[in-house]
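Quick illustration for those who missed Monday's session on complexes.
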Amino acid sequence: MSFARLSCGSASADSGTEKRVHRLLSFQRYLHSSRLLRGIPQQIPLHILDEDYSGQAKCMLEKVGNWNFDIFLFDKLTNGNSLITLTLHLLNQYGLVDLFQLDMVKLWRFLVLVQEDYHNDNPYHNSVHAADVTQAMYCYLQEPMLSKSLTSCDILLGLLAAATHDLDHPGVNQPFLIKTDHYLATLYRNTSVLENHHWKSAVGLLRETGLFSHLPAEDSMNMERELGSLILATDISRQNDYLSRFRTHLDQDSLCLNTASHRHFVLQMALKCADICNPCRPWELSKQWSEKVTEEFFQQGDIEKKHKLTVSPLCDRETNTVGNIQIDFMTYVAEPLFGEWARFSDTRLSQTMLGHMGLNKASWAGLQQEQTTAKEAELSAAGADAGGSHSKEIPQGSREY
Ligand SMILES: [Zn+2]
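Prediction with zinc ion bound:
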């Protein structure tokens, strides 16, 4: 996609496109549990348009590229508007609003709708997670390997994909949707069901707000397609495909970042890293994310038990702990990915992330050990009590009765 064509498109979409858009939106609205069906009132705090948020939030944004950025604090300071505020700030910082001639009112409306379409009753997959992933994505976009080769279009897509990558997430996983015959599983034929839904929801909002309606139709279609390709890459069940492709490129030193398809692949890898970077954050942040994601798993398990469905792996609160889930996740998913990422981008940030992950893993292992020891002590105390109470229950001479 040429950048020149992107920035000098026609003023409006043709009527055929508008008709297609209308049909798509009707469908989205009706079937995709839109904010209207969920009965969420539209309350748009307009003051954020003027960046008139509190001084502290503004102060935090000056250090938005720091790896220890506390998104939970930022969300509080922005009154729950971290995703809107952060994304708008980053788009402005890169000059993308001017460069792509984005209409501020449309952009604002788009970001408000994106944030609203995240379910804030999900313990984990909510708009704060999306804001966290967007912040991490920004950190990666700033890395020399990417910053020296990415185009403005790549950066715009990377940030938008991060902000929308879990849009309208229902708080349960794909196997749950399949076994409960959810319409989304049927619609997307049991393949990347959630990711397809996130993508299509994002496209619905892009079209509804007309954010790219001033671009040539072909360019906005390309943007939508590339956005999809980035979001679909976050499907964790396809982790090995992406990782082995990445590894092969690194082994053969064959990544050529002048090539659009290679840059796109690197963006996919960056988004994958951003999506699962929780174990690489400082302990205080990482621990909170771990607890939140586990609570979401356990809530799914509770629903499965209630409806007498097989409880999904990791979702049973009786047999799993935050620590064991985290240690396995780091060992089998995060460490291999971030190990390769550090080969690709051998920087201080990559070393910092690996360092945090090592420390966090050790902390979880320590906590696991403490819990096991406490449980053993409890059991042996209970055993001793049981033995004691036995002798009390059968007092000397009781057999006489
Ligand atoms: Zn995510």
